[in-house]
Amino acid sequence: MTGAALERLRKSYLETHDRSEPYAPEVPMPQTWPEDLQDRSRRNSIRLFENVGIAREDQEARAANWRNNFQFFNAPALAILCQDRTLTEWSIMDLGTFGGYLMLSAEQHGIQSVPAFSSVAYPKLLRAELDIPEHLLIRTGILLGYAEEDHPYNRHVSEREPLEHLVHFKQ
Asked: Region entry Disordered: which residue ranges (predicted)?
């Protein structure tokens, strides 16, 4: 989605977010996270806020920063990935592979991308704007555009778990 349709969606998302309406993604969010993932996420958030110059106690700046999510970071394009509701959870692997290849293909063409929870936070708005039928489950969204290389967000590198902690090889 691009152009006028994306601008309408951006406007309706911002209005909905600004009214503090609860997020209602069709894929449930985890209620708890494993401690190591939560710790790493917290460390990454602290570093990101430091990089963009937002003090931890500055709630107003943090709220304004969060609001950027619902403007889709001004990306000029948004891809919404859906899955037929009759498929099993196994199909999420196919959709994830497709999403990854979409992002790699975009990069090959000089277009940057980022998966974004915020893009599917209000599925009723998506369905209305894109005429997404009810038999499709809205899974995720991918923002597409051209990164501002000098923006602090784009200089932030998230902490990653070492590969040897994630993949085990046995001979």
From this structure: 17-36
CATH number at residue 65: 3.40.109.10
Task: Please report whether residue 164 resides in a domain.
Answer: no
Tell me which residue has tokens 């998966």: 115
Q: Who contacts 74 (Cβ-Cβ below 8 Å, separation ≥6)?
A: 145
Q: What is the pTM of this model?
A: 0.89
Q: Could you tell me if residue 167 is inside a domain?
A: no
* Residue-wise pLDDT tens digits, 126-135: 999 999 999 9
The answer to whether 65 and 152 are in contact (CB under 8 A) is: no
pLDDT tens-digit map of 67-115 = 999 999 999 999 999 999 999 989 999 999 999 999 999 999 999 999 9
Domain that holds residue 137: 3-26+34-157
Q: How far apart are CA 26 and CA 126, in angstroms?
A: 11
Is the CB of residue 51 less than 8 Å from the CB of residue 149? no
Whole-number Å distance between alpha carbons of 12 and 150: 29
